[in-house]
Design a protein that fits this description.
The protein is α/β, with parallel strands linked by helices. The protein contains seven helices and six strands. Helices cover 38% and strands 16% of the residues.
C-alpha cells in the first residue's frame, strides 16, 4: 500500500476537524514503526517489532490525551503497512507540532541493550546510527529516496531541516534522554543522528526512538511487559510535556 501526498490509508488515524478550543492544542503525531507485511525486527523467539511499536503507540496516545493538553494523530492504529513517504506526508498534511517514530533495535551484539534517540542529519553520527538508518529506510524504498512527490517537495525533503526544526528535534531528543535516565535503560551515547527518511518533514520537529534491543533478552522482556511499557510511556509523556513547556511555546516551530 503506497500513499501519495493526498492519500489516507485504512486504519490510519488522522486528526478530526478541531474546534476553536482544541485547535490551540499542539498536535502530536505518533508513528508506530513497520506494520502489515513488514514485521520490522524479529526477536530470537519470534516477537515482532511491529507488535510492540503499535501497542506502545496506542498506550502513548491514551496517556497524552488523558493530560488534556494535546491532540494526537497516528500514522497507523492497526496492523497495516504504511510507506515511509506516507508517514512523512501525514505529518505535513496535519501540520503536526511534533513527530515521534517508535521502533525497536536489532543489533549484531546481543549484549547491547537500552533505548536510543535519533534525530535527522545528512551524515550519520557513527557507524551504528548509519546501519540503523539504512535498515529503517529500506522498508519500502532505496535509502535516501523519496518518491511520489513533486520535484519541489522532493528537493525540500532531501535537504536538511530548517534551523528551527533542527533545534526543536534536538530539544525533544534531549528531553527524552533526560526523562529515561536512571529509569529506562539507555545505550551508550543514546542520542545519535542519521539520515532517516521518516524524519524528513522540514517543518516538524521529529525524533525516532529505538525503545530497546529485541536481540537482548532483558530488553525483549521489558518491551513485552505491559507494566514496563507503561513506565516507558509515562516517561515519554513527561518528556513531551517538558518539550512543550520549555522549548516549543517559545520557538518559531511552536
Amino acid at each position: 500500500m503506497r500513499l501519495a501526498l493526498g492519500g489516507v490509508a485504512a486504519g490510519v488515524a488522522m486528526p478530526r476537524r478541531a474546534s476553536a478550543v482544541t485547535a490551540e492544542k499542539p498536535l502530536v503525531m505518533l508513528d508506530p514503526g513497520h506494520g502489515g507485511h513488514d514485521p520490522g525486527a524479529i526477536a530470537p523467539d519470534g516477537v515482532f517489532e511491529k507488535t510492540i511499536t503499535l501497542a506502545t503507540g496506542l498506550a502513548l496516545r491514551t496517556a497524552l490525551l488523558r493530560t488534556g493538553r494535546y491532540r494526537v494523530a497516528m500514522t497507523r492504529t492497526r496492523d497495516v503497512f504504511v510507506t515511509l513517504e506516507g508517514r512523512v506526508a501525514m505529518a505535513m498534511q496535519a501540520n503536526a507540532s511534533l513527530f515521534l517514530a517508535l521502533h525497536c533495535d536489532h543489533l549484531p551484539d546481543p549484549t547491547l541493550r537500552g533505548a536510543s534517540i535519533f534525530t535527522l542529519s545528512d551524515t550519520a553520527s557513527d557507524a551504528l546510527a548509519a546501519g540503523i538508518a539504512n535498515d529503517e529506510n529500506g522498508a519500502d524504498s532505496p535509502p535516501g529516496q523519496i518518491t511520489g512527490v513533486s520535484p519541489q517537495v522532493a528537493s525540500i525533503l532531501a535537504s536538511l531541516e530548517t534551523r528551527a526544526t533542527k533545534i526543536g528535534s534536538q530539544s525533544l531528543a534531549q528531553d527524552i534522554q533526560a526523562s529515561f535516565t536512571g529509569v529506562v535503560p539507555l545505550l551508550p551515547d543514546p542520542h545519535r543522528s542519521a539520515n532517516f527518511a521518516v524524519l524528513r518533514d522540514p517543518s516538524t520537529p521529529a525524533a525516532l526512538l529505538e525503545m530497546g534491543c529485541l536481540t537482548n533478552k532483558l530488553d525483549e522482556t521489558r518491551l513485552r511487559d505491559p507494566r514496563q511499557r507503561a513506565q516507558l510511556v509515562s516517561h515519554l509523556t513527561g518528556a513531551i510535556d517538558t518539550y512543550f513547556t520549555d522549548y516549543a511555546k517559545h520557538s518559531p516551530t511552536g
